[in-house]
Amino acid sequence: MSDDFRACWTEAPGRAAVRSGTLAPAAEGDVRVRTLHSAVSRGTELLVFNGEVPESEHARMRAPFQEGDFPAPVKYGYASVGVVEAGPPALQGCAVFCLYPHQTRYVVPQSAVHPLPDGLPPARAVLAANMETAVNALWDAAPRVGDRVAVVGGGVVGLLVAWLASRMPGVRVELVDVRAERAAVAAHLGLAFSTPDAATPEADLVVHASGQPDGLVTALGLAGFEATVLELSWYGRRAVALPLGEAFHARRLTLRSSQVGHVATAQRSRWTHARRMALALSLLRDPALDALVTDVAPFDDLPQVLARLAAGAPDTLCQRIDYS
Q1: For residues 302 and 94, what is the distance between their CA atoms, to the nearest angstrom?
Q2: Residue 2: its pLDDT value, please?
Q3: C-beta of residue 233 within 8 angstroms of C-beta of residue 212
Q4: Is the dihedral of CA 14, 323, 273, 227 positive or negative?
Q5: What residues contact 93, with CB distance under 8 A and at least 6 apart?
């Protein structure tokens, strides 16, 4: 069993490279994982790659097993799926999810890995961090039976939020995106779709997940009287201008943030991060969600993949990285 590993580092803003290393010996209670797949976050991870994490957020935005510091060099990422090569007998050979950067092998405490439930293929499990974000968002948003919900932004997180909300009794969901091409994946997931100019107004709840300030403006415009607009996008260093004059106050709108680092307030006294992740993994067993993994590349190509995604790549939803 080799102790060597390779890992992807952002060497400088906009430039990544693969570094080699040797694993430290595993301590009692550790597991050793051989990576099968990982995924690139189109939001936070690309802000890290581009060096756009504000200094005020350097500590809060650290990933669980990050090495280095912002802006660079830094080893960052949090969507790794692998097989336990060594550790407690009950876990050996088990497929697990871990909030670990892009690396071929790693050693972590046993508590850091989450076994995949029966029926969840490792290749789909790379969506776990996104699903966990979607679960937390809906806990924060608290849609009610029969609500009309607009989800602005048809990326992976927006699609997962819309898909989960649509499974609630009586809830009508409309996915809103500037790219008409998102209609196909929305239909695959059983979701109604609209472009912003044709979206249904007067929503009871609006969730914004486009990552673009214009999307948040659209979200505010779709909200009905005394509705809530939940903001999932994180903009890094970018300033965002919003139309908080006009009808914002007269319509008594609520604009609130949601972030996955803390369990949503309403659930926090009962739910741990581990319990929330177990739920996210269980929700990924539906094969329809394979449609969210649109691009696949080998690990050695990851530096070039990051550069391509940072340049735009609007057709890519989840970018999976394969390790063998």
Answers
A1: 25
A2: 78
A3: yes
A4: positive
A5: 83, 84
